[in-house]
Amino acid sequence: MNGVPSRVVLFIGAVLAAVTACDRLPGMPSEVAPPSIGSEAWTRATFNTYCRGCHASGADGASIPLMDRSYWTFASDERVIAATANGQGVMMPAFSQSAGGPFTDDEVMALARGMRGVFGGSSGAGISATIVPGDRANGEGLFANACAPCHRDGAPGGSLVDPAFLALVSDQGLWASTLAGRAVLGMPAWNHAMPSRPSGLTQEEAADIIAFVASHRAAKKDAPP
Amino acid sequence: MKWARVTIAWLESRSGLGAFIKPLMSHRVPASAKWWYVFGSATLMFFVIQVVTGVCLATVYAPSAAEAWASLRYIDSEVPAGWLIRAIHGWSSNAMVVMMAIHGLQVFLHASYKYPRELNWITGVFLLLVVLGLAFTGQVMRWDQDAYWGLGIGASIVDRVPLIGSQMRDLVLGGPIIGGETLNRFFALHVFILPGMAIGLLGLHLALIMRHGISEMPRAGERVDPATYTPAYEARMEREGVPFHPDASQRDMVFCGACLIALIVLAAVYGPFGPGAQPDPTLIDTNPRPDYPFMWIFGAVSLLPPSSETVVMLAAPALLVVWLLLVPLLGRAGERAPSRRPGMMLAAALAVIGIASLTWEGMTSPWSPVMDAWSSLPTPGAMVRGRKALEVQGAIVFQYAQCRNCHALDGEGGRRGPELDSIATRMTPEQLTRQVQQGGGNMPAYGKNLSSAQMSALVSFLATLKPSDEAPADIPGALLPLPSR
Fold first, then answer.
1. Is A34 in CB contact (< 8 Å) with chain B?
2. Would you tell me which CATH number, out of the four given (1.10.760.10, 3.30.565.10, 1.20.272.10, 3.50.50.60), belongs to the domain A136-214?
3. Is the pLDDT confidence value at A223 over 60?
4. How confident is the model at residue A123 (pLDDT cuts 50, 70, 90)?
């Protein structure tokens, strides 16, 4: 280094350091590849953008809590795919592109299967994912026994035979709420033990109750124009 | 080194370049001109950086609507140090506007625009307009969502000009809508027309500085008198002046060096601006904001009541420019010291405070709806727990009708309308029903979009939104004022 001024060495060193460090500067834009369809990251991101507003977990959200395991124990993939693709009841919009939504058919299927993988487990125990026909007369007595303590007029859970409520909730929606329960609202699931019934309701009894409740629905469906 | 001396002597004899530059370097400037006078030089430095980096970018950038966005991504990811050059170009653009504003403010505070330097100021005003034009057209070069909507807003402002508005809009956009020709037009403006005008005006500005000399620091009681000013100034420079180089130029160099380091650090740490999402007119799920130099206009326009928009948007900028041009013509003589010009000081202070607060307003005020709030923000648990069946359905209607996009719950959601956490203390169910059905204020009417069941569920839910220790609103017809945003 004799003869070369030290500041020249310093300068060259600084330039070399700057040039080689160029790709590690914090301002360099990074390419973030979007998560692949069906992956857990994709499922969570998609759920958070499109579903979470209504279907959040236990503490939050107003509709069926899809982030809770309780729903997934009886919901079949076919049922979830149908509801996601074509909408459900009065207020759930359709999400498949064929119905005007944002997702391709593949994405709808990947989302339904992905949600089960992320939030729930396998369905089983022989519970029907869709509502089964019930007996209205039998349901009336069961309702008085199992539901009325919370759902009679003036009780904390509010009336279920209110035509406004029934105009907004489909039978399938009542089925899902009865089977999954709404822990955050204090509503137990169908097979919850009650003083009068240590083993809870059977599937048929739940259907009977829903047949009774749904019979109060106004004849003409009050749908938005 | 004899050949070098011979070459230089030959060049000098044929071109006379040295004889031209020497007086530039040695012209006498007031000794009082200390650190106050460095801002003009720094603006010039940023302009030179813009030209150099801009030429580099133009060698790769594709000015076509189909390829512009992708070519920026290419510059960012493939071209060696391309992202750094884009970052420097973007940051330097903002820095040039800021430095220019500071330079203009200093000239205004010291009234250096008075006789005989009126034209210096006027060329400066036109330079400011050209630089703002460069900043706006530069934002369009990014060709992303912000650029697309910024253009749309600019074009609709132009469209409001009486009589010739639609012709002017067609001229700006190359047709009635933003299309393939639009980007070419703005590219030509950004790289040929406006830089050409800037270089011409800059030459004139510098020639005028050489012609009239740099003004001295103002002293209270020392009035500018056009009859005697020039001889007195020249005599004083002869007596007390110092040569520009090295006395003043060294301060310029130190300041410009500091600015350059700050610029490179900003560019290296914060990176280039955009490009944001691809421009797609069908996507309304976007929240476009202009670049910083225009944020205060964005803030001002958004605060205007709709009835006054056209008049204010068209007349205010024109009046502002006319006033700036008239400043040196109406005030060519008299006191220069700030202490003797309280009215002008007040005007400057109001301008700075106004632009700063409107910029802040433009940056922070979330007046656009949050388009995905309805599907991504769940109803807070505290507002669901303990509710009756119909009220819970009302919470779903609240999401379904996308109320959340404009109305926050528990601090989350849009802020276009008031937060509704305690709406039940301010409005009775009857008032809520009327408001949802008929709209009012900025709110659209939802009467036709909701069934009667949805309406009664929604209102029954809204009627539960209040702190448990507060009474619900119960005075018929009495609407308490909504809290401000």
1. no
2. 1.10.760.10
3. no
4. low
Residues of A in contact with B376 (CB under 8 A): 48-50, 52-53
Judged by a CB distance cut-off of 8 A, whether residue A50 touches chain B is: yes
* Residue B104 near residue B131 (C-beta atoms within 8 A): no
Residues B384, B401: Cα–Cα separation, whole Å: 17
B307: which 2 tokens? 């009835």
Alpha helices in A101-135 (DSSP H): 105-119
Domain boundaries, chain A: 40-119, 136-214
* Sequence-distant contacts of B281-286: CB under 8 A, at least 24 apart: B281/B148, B281/B178, B283/B145, B284/B371, B285/B371, B285/B372, B286/B145, B286/B149, B286/B371
Q: What is the pLDDT of residues B291-335, one digit of tens each?
A: 888 888 888 887 888 788 888 888 888 999 999 999 999 988 999
A31 to chain B nearest CA, in Å? 8
Spell out the domains of chain B, with CATH numbers in brackets.
23-364 (1.20.810.10), 373-462 (1.10.760.10)
Domain A40-119: CATH architecture, name and number where available: Orthogonal Bundle (1.10)
DSSP assignment of B246-267 equals IIIHHHHHHHHHHHHHHHHHHH
- Secondary structure of residue B440 in the 3-state scheme: strand
Contact B389 A151 (CB under 8 A): yes
Three-state SS for A42-83 is HHHHHHHHHCHHHHCCCCCCCCCCCCCHHHHCCCCHHHHHHH
Summarised one tens digit per residue, pLDDT across range B135-146 is: 999 989 988 888
Helix (H, G, I), strand (E, B) or coil at B285: coil
Query: For the complex shown, is ipTM > 0.90?
Result: no
Decide if A219 touches B, using CB distance below 8 A.
no
Q: Which residues of B touch A48 (CB under 8 A)?
A: 376
Between CA B95 and CA B270 the distance in angstroms is 14
**Do the Cβ atoms of B215 and B110 come closer than 8 Å?**
yes
Q: Do B454 and A22 touch (CB under 8 A)?
A: no
C-alpha to C-alpha distances, A151 to A148, B320, B388, nearest whole angstrom: 5, 67, 8
Residues on chain B touching A151 (C-beta within 8 angstroms): 389
Q: Is A160 near chain B, with CB under 8 Å?
A: yes
| Tokens read off for A209 | 């109750």
Nearest to B297 by CA among B346, B354, B345: B354
CB contact under 8 A, A225 and B384: no
* Higher-pLDDT residue of B307, B117: B117
Name the minimum distance, in Å, from the CA of B459 to any CA of chain A: 12
Residues in chain A with CB shorter than 8 Å from the CB of B398 are 62
Q: What is the SS3 assignment for B164? A: coil
Selection from B441, B458, B437 nearest residue B449 by Cα: B437
Which residues in chain B are closer than 8 Å to A63, comparing Cβ atoms?
396, 399
- Find the closest chain A residue to B380 by CA distance: A60
Chain B residues with beta carbon closer than 8 angstroms to that of A28: 83-84, 271
Tokens describing residue A37: 């369809």
> Which of B74, B278, B391, B400 is best to mutate for the A interface (most A CBs within 10 A)?
B400
**CB-CB neighbours of A52 under 10 Å:** 20
Q: What are B341's two structure tokens?
A: 């010009």
